[in-house]
Amino acid sequence: MTGKLLLRGMIAGVVGGLLAFLFARLYGEPLIDVAIAFEEHAGAAHDAAEPEMVSRATQAGLGLLTGVVVYGAALGGILALAFAVVYGRFSRLGVRALAAIMALSGFVAVILVPVVKYPANPPAVGAADTIGDRTQLFFIMLLVSLALMIAAFALARRMRPRLGAWNAAIVAGLAYVLAIAVVMALLPEVNEVPDGFSAVLLWRFRLAALGLQAVIWATVGLLFGFLAERLVLGAPSKPDRRV
Amino acid sequence: MSALSRTATAQPVAIPLGEVMPWATFAGLMLMLMVYFVGTEQGAMAMFSGSTVHEFVHDGRHLLGFPCH
After folding, report:
1. Which residue is closest to B17 within chain A, CA to CA?
2. Domain-ending residue, one of A150, A177, A192
3. Is the same domain home to A157 and A214?
4. Of B13, B27, B57, which has the smallest distance from its Cβ to A77's Cβ?
5. Which of A50, A146, B3, B46 to pair with A214, CA 20 to 30 A apart?
6. Contact A3 B28 (CB under 8 A)
7. Which of B37, B40, B59 is opposite residue A60, by nearest beta carbon?
8. A12, A219 in Cβ contact below 8 A?
């Protein structure tokens, strides 16, 4: 069962990646081109032109496609494995409701909240010598947020008998928000936007990056729910199923 | 009546942990590695020297929100 769920999660992720590719071509690539033009203009003074190992056309085409599809497949697979652990064990929700809730809370914990502290940056934003620190901080923020989200669900579960489902969820949600506020206050600020970089371009790029993630997570959550329900409950047309 | 039996079928039954764990361990590791290669390889860390992986997934890395360079 787990293997079959995993396969369906990865299929949903590949579809999400393909949709994300279309989204990125429409809303992301035009912004990257403008940012690279700024980078080349600004860097022309001190950087000798770097030899181009991979052409821009490949980066914006096959490279982008590979990146988002592999990411989508991995994400869908991880969600499916988490689903296999949670379903019927930590949750009594049905297949599709649980898949949707897990994808939504995953999106909040792994994307929406970390992005508030360390947003996506277009080319030209970010100093090359701080990549190690920035990557470390990014993953610390992401992992702490995910751990706190799981803790919040565990808290809600414990409080439900005393407070009822709604109040338990509100208390757990508040606890998550407060804990995140403390973590964000403790982690250092990163601001490496170069002088003269367009504020509008930066805003649109970050919005596009968030939109792309929303496309992937929404597709994974909803499509995996659809595919997994047919697997778990059996397709309506085929009552004769193996378990 | 048919609605009732459908609800009964739909009662979530947990998958035994013994069945989930091998998958979660090995497939989970592979999936994390996939995210690593798209997101971080030849950025902050590198298993392979050079920058071909970095350059190839460059646009995806930026748009997925990973620190790229």
Report:
1. A85
2. A192
3. no
4. B27
5. B46
6. no
7. B59
8. yes
Q: Do B31 and A64 touch (CB under 8 A)?
A: no
Each of the 243 residues of chain A gets a pLDDT tens digit; together they read 999 999 999 999 999 999 999 999 999 999 999 999 998 887 655 555 566 788 888 898 999 999 999 999 999 999 999 999 999 999 999 999 999 999 999 999 999 999 999 999 999 998 888 898 999 999 999 999 999 999 999 999 999 999 999 999 999 999 999 999 999 999 999 999 999 999 999 999 999 999 999 999 999 999 999 999 999 988 765 555 555
Q: Domain count of chain A?
A: 2
Contacts of B15 in chain A (CB under 8 A): 1-2, 84-85, 87-88
Q: Is residue A239 part of a domain?
A: yes
Residue A5: inside a domain: yes
For residues A141 and A183, the answer to whether their CB atoms sit within 8 Å is yes
Which H or E run includes A211?
helix A199-233
ipTM over 0.85: yes
Contact B15 A1 (CB under 8 A): yes
| Domain coverage including residue A238 | 1-41+57-125+198-243
Tokens found for residue B12: 């979530």
Given an 8 Å threshold on Cβ–Cβ distance, is A68 in contact with B64?
yes
Question: Is A24 in contact with B60 (Cβ distance < 8 A)?
Answer: yes
User: Do both A163 and A221 map to the same domain?
Assistant: no
Contact B62 A54 (CB under 8 A): no
Domain with B60, as residue range(s), is 28-69
User: Rounded to two decimals, what is the model's pTM?
Assistant: 0.91
Same domain membership, residue A204 and residue A171: no
Flag whether B39 is in a domain: yes
Domain co-membership, A134 together with A121: no
d(CA B40, CA A23): 22
Tally C-beta pairs within 8 A across A and B. 157
Query: Searching chain A, which residue's CA lies closest to the CA of residue B60?
Result: A64
Bin A164: left if φ > 0, else alpha if -120 < ψ < 50, else beta: left
DSSP state of A67: H
